[in-house]
Structures are given as structure tokens and as C-alpha cells.
Amino acid sequence: MFTKSSFSPAWWLKNAHLQTIAAKFFRRGHSIDTTNETLELPDGDFVDLAWTEQVNSACTRPIIAVLHGLEGSKNSHYAKGMLSAIKAQGWVGVLMHFRGCSGRPNRMPQSYHSGQTCDVDYFSQYLASNYPEAKKAIVGFSLGGNVLTKYLAQQKQNIYQAACVICAPLDLSSCSNRINRGFSRVYQKYLVDMLRASTVEKIKANLLHNIDTTRLNSVRSIRDFDQMVTAPINGFIDANDYYKQASGRDVLQQITTPCLIIHATDDPFLCHVNTTAITSLPKQMTFEVSAKGGHVGFISGNNPFKPRYWLEQRIPEFFTRYL
User: Which of 80, 162, 236, 302 is the most buried (most CB within 10 A)?
Assistant: First the structure.
């Protein structure tokens, strides 16, 4: 069901862009120690995992899996904050880097994308096999939230007691249009620059052969990058075909796992018109919409020197019901 969020923005951060940027600014000095592990995949590629601590197969404490956003990593401000919040609960956190996002390129031409769920599925099977006594939950941010939505819809009998989807581009086409307007194009440039750089690395490593570097350097929008790179290397006809097949909006009804979705209507990355027009949701799903919050911001509190990160309270609060 759709509900109004309890989030109230800090009086000094009511602007969507301030919410979005401040979270990264305030957390620039924050760090969390992780134990790193490489998970080999069935197709010969790999993903790197970052654990809040080393655990053995007898672990009975809850394990919370974290999926980051586009070109994110364990060093993304929201990932560091969430892993710290998980650890503070006495739980174990583990972030799965999407292919090529851990600081080293992956081995295959194919990349991660908004609808690629096979790695999450294999990672989840790995958790189930190696830590059978631990209850499990999972949270996905931005692109990772859309991936999680697709995964939950495909794998109804999954290992997770609960899931959270945060600021996800559930309708990819409208979101690619939204980030190409106004000040949001600043965020788009930041993301496209990183996407181009990682693609050039793969071209230099002889993993990609049909992408012209000159044309790649002229790409300025997410949609154009998806048209030139994401779609063809991952088996889609074009960007529109990718967006249609990978968007999570149309599969929400298929999710049976208890799930909390959080969105802000002022999110400068996302378009909410198509998503919030949904007339019904599964009974075990709560879709919280707030007027403010920006993109993965949600900063509250009265003291500018002591900001509160509301997501790091709300997500554990939701998981506690099921763990």
C-alpha cells in the first residue's frame, strides 16, 4: 500500500539538491573497515564482497545484504552509512559490488545493469549455502533497488525475510528523461563521465570491440550511453528495449517478500508519475512516499553540525520486525 513517509527534512536542508549533495559532503570523512572477499561466478566472471566482519558458517546473527547504485561501491556515502547502521544493530552486513565496481574491471564484455539479477541470485544462493543458520534481509539503493525489485519478482521463494528498495528508478525511461533536465544534468554528467571511463578501460583491455571511442567520448546523456553501450553489450535491441525489459515498476505485483519501498517526490534523479499511478500493491509491500528527501539523502535533525540520517533508522526499524 502507498503511505505517507514519516520523514521530516532538516530545516536547513529542505531543497532537493541540498539533500542529495549534503549527504555525500557530510560523509566524505566517514569510513568503515571491511573484510573483502571475491565471489567467483559460474560464467567465469567475479564480484567482490565487502563484509562488516568475518563470520563463519555457524553464524546465527542476521545477515543484511546491500546493493549499491550506478557506479557505486562500498565507499558510496549511503553504503558506508548503511553498513555502519547494520553493524550498530549487532547484525552482519555484506555489500555485493556489481561487476566492475570494486575498483578493478570485470573479466567479461557484459556489464551490470538495472535488470541484471543473475549475480544477485548467485550471491544469495552463496549466502544460503554458507550461512544457513542466519536470518537474512536485503536493501538496494537506486539502481541496486531496481535490480532488487526484479530479483524479488523472479525469485519468489528467495532466502530473505524482508527487503528494502530505496530511491529506485522503477520506470527507467522516464527516469532517464528526468535526469536530462535542469540542474539534474549535473548529476548525469558525473555518472556519464564514470561510465565512459570504465568503458574505455574495457576497450583498452580488449573486452569490447564494437564501440567507437570517438563516438563514446561524445556521449552526454544516460540514454545515449545506454543506447551505445549498455543495450548492445547486454543483448538488448536498443535503449528502449532495455528500459522496457529491465524496469521494476511492472513486476511489483509479483513480489511476495515483505518489502518496504522509499521514494521522495523531489528526487532529482527520478520521475514518479508512472510509478505512483499504480492503483494496487501486494499486501506485504509498503510504499512510503515523502515530499522531501532528494536522492538517497533523507537528512533530518535540528543541528547542522549533527545531521541525522533517517534511512539508517527507518531501514533497521523495518527489518527488526522480521529478524
Answer: 162
